[in-house]
Design brief:
The chain has about 250 residues and is of the alpha/beta class. It has helices spanning about 30-40, 65-70, 85-95, 110-115, 135-150, 155-175, 215-225; strands spanning about 5-15, 15-25, 45-50, 55, 80-85, 105, 120-130, 180-185, 190-195, 225-230, 235-245. The protein folds into 2 domains: about 5-115, STAS domain (Transcription Regulator spoIIAA, 2-Layer Sandwich); about 120-245, Histidine kinase-like ATPase, C-terminal domain (Heat Shock Protein 90, 2-Layer Sandwich), CATH 3.30.565.10.
Length: about 250
């Protein structure tokens, strides 16, 4: 079997996406597994589990794919990543540093039993119809949810502003509904807004176009610890997200 042969199946177990690679994991197939993990993470399952039972590890350096993905999704969407080694790879993964970044388990059943070992997350979702009152609905939803979760007032105010701006962008620049999601984990509050447009959210140069300078996004960038935009060309949609931490 050559190194470029790697198939990737996925199913849903207990609200967790279980990815089952089959073939050889090496430098040539590393990008394929990386991209599949990132794609599923955007949908924010309870956890990502990668089952290595049917994989041949062509080079141990390719195992850094798990560190790479874990670091990229640690701020958002903050989905736990677990690796089920299977009997063939237990010793190999025991000797690698990826245990610092992901939870390594014996098999899929063991991974499912340990999904909640990381800090629990709180989630709330609101689907806002495309209408001028969408930003106001977003502000009410955020304030109500943050109050229920006991989020500090300053962080709540930041989240209200961020959600309002992101939903306003959806209403102004797309014909889509806005899918507003809040997540609280480890003291970090994530505000994410999805819509049915692939046009990325970018910070424009105000000197070139002061009318369409992404003023709202600049405010989002100032309030957030980090923010970004993930576009899905297959599903023809995007998600703009911002991670907030307590100020002061």
């Amino acid at each position: 079997m050559t190194g470029n042969q790697l198939t990737l199946d996925a199913d849903l177990l207990g609200q967790c996406v279980v990815i089952r690679p089959r073939g050889v994991l090496d430098r040539s197939t590393y990008p394929r597994l990386r991209d599949r993990m990132l794609k599923h993470a955007v949908d924010v399952p309870r956890a990502l589990i990668v089952d290595l039972s049917d994989v041949t590890i062509g080079t141990t350096s390719a195992l850094s794919v798990f560190t790479t993905v874990s670091l990229r999704i640690s701020d958002w969407p903050a989905v736990p990543l677990l690796v089920a080694t299977g009997p063939a790879h237990a010793e190999t993964l025991r000797r690698t540093p990826i245990r610092r970044y992901v939870t390594v388990c014996a098999d899929v059943d063991d991974a499912l039993a340990n999904v909640d070992r990381p800090a629990p997350r709180k989630r709330a979702l609101a689907v806002l119809a495309h209408h001028p009152g969408g930003p106001q609905d977003a502000r009410r939803f955020v304030r109500r949810t943050c109050a229920e979760w006991g989020v500090p007032d300053v962080m709540t105010d930041d989240a209200v502003h961020v959600a309002s701006e992101l939903v306003q962008n959806t209403m102004q620049h797309t014909g889509s509904e806005a899918r507003l999601r809040l997540e609280l984990c480890n003291g970090r509050l994530t505000v994410a807004v999805g819509d049915d447009s692939q046009v990325p959210a970018v910070l424009a140069d105000p000197g070139l176009d002061p009318v369409r300078a992404g003023k709202g996004l600049r405010m989002v960038a100032q309030l957030a610890k980090t923010w970004g935009c993930v576009a899905d060309q297959v599903e023809q949609r995007k998600t703009v997200w911002a991670v907030l931490v307590q100020r002061g």
